[in-house]
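Technical note accompanying the year-one report. For the benefit of new consortium partners, we illustrate the data format agreed upon in the data management plan: each record pairs a sequence with a structure-token string. No post-processing was applied to the example shown here.
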Amino acid sequence: RHLQAAPTTCFSLSLPLQLEYAGASPVQLRFLRLHSRLATQKVSYSCRPAPEQGQPQPEKEIRFLADSREQSYAASLQGCVLDNESSITDTIFQFTTEELSLLPLRDLAVFHNGDASHQFGFTVGPVCFS
């Protein structure tokens, strides 16, 4: 008996600021959910502290809105710290779920104390169904 890997279908962002996915119509997502058992997506948070700051910044909270728009994921972000190897610090969030209605992510928000002394950004990876 031969084992075959299940096919995987992925969608990437088409407009990064709006978290819309090229080719992922509601009909296509519904079909994939019927024929998949797992959904995955990765998000990277990158930050660059102000050069004069050598101390850790306070933790920040981040919320990711699920595709159902009725649930969200919450996490804490470490403060952005300048180290000797790189001027950018990355935090990776990996989402893997059997609750297929939770992905793809639709929005994200960072809650902080108003500190604007560092630059930050997100890279939202493709959502994959398998």
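Partners are asked to follow this layout when depositing records. Confidence is low (pLDDT under 50) at residues 1-5.
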